[in-house]
């Protein structure tokens, strides 16, 4: 998957594109994500989290990064990186506040699952925080299960998904309301 269109608000097309983390299209996402982490968790957690995964971890053959563009503007995105030969982790997943509740996070999550399958992973994990109830609800709605978190001093919540089933199979293809 290198690019594709998904329906946006009022069926306006938006573009989903695989890019390197260093691409200029990713900069608004990283800036917005850092600001959001700072607001929700405090600046030290935001800065530490943003420095935790180098850009090369999101490049093939071990990872991927996608952005969702609306009229050329980056409004959502995220990446996957290798944890083991069979397991990857979602990182940097974010949607612009003015573009939430439009299915963009779902489109990004499904694109990341597809990329992870293409890279040979069978399991996908992610960590989110207690101040992100919308993320917790999204992952739960799509069949991700809570798993124990190792080494968290900020109340992180970890989830895991099974990539052996095609996207939508485990949840009957439903979309959360």
Q: N- to C-terminal separation?
A: 26 Å
Assign the CATH architecture.
Answer: 3-Layer(aba) Sandwich
Total strand segments? 8
**For the CA atoms, what is the radius of gyration?**
15 Å
Strand content: 25-35%
CATH topology label = Aminopeptidase
Based on secondary structure, the structural category is alpha+beta
Low-confidence stretches: 169-177
Strand order of the largest sheet: 1-2-3-4-5-6-8-7
Shape: globular
Helix content: 25-40%
Put simply, the count of helices is: 4
Number of domains: 1
At the first level of CATH, the class is Alpha Beta
Write the element-wise H/E pattern from the N-terminal end onward: EEHHEEEHEHEE
Whole-number mean pLDDT: 84
Task: Give a quick account of the main beta sheet: strands, pairing sense, barrel closure.
Answer: 8 strands, mixed
CATH superfamily: Gcn5-related N-acetyltransferase (GNAT)
Overview of the structural elements:
The chain has 177 residues and is α+β, with helices and mostly antiparallel strands. The chain has a single domain (3-162), classed as Aminopeptidase (3-Layer(aba) Sandwich), CATH 3.40.630.30. Helix content is 27%, strand content 29%. The chain has helices at residues 27-41, 43-50, 104-118, 133-141, and strands spanning 3-7, 13-18, 64-70, 73-82, 87-95, 123-128, 145-147, 157-162. It has an eight-stranded mixed sheet with strand order 1-2-3-4-5-6-8-7, sandwiched between helices. Strand 3 (64-70) and strand 4 form a beta hairpin. Helix 1 packs antiparallel against helix 2. It starts with a strand and ends in a 15-residue tail after the last strand.
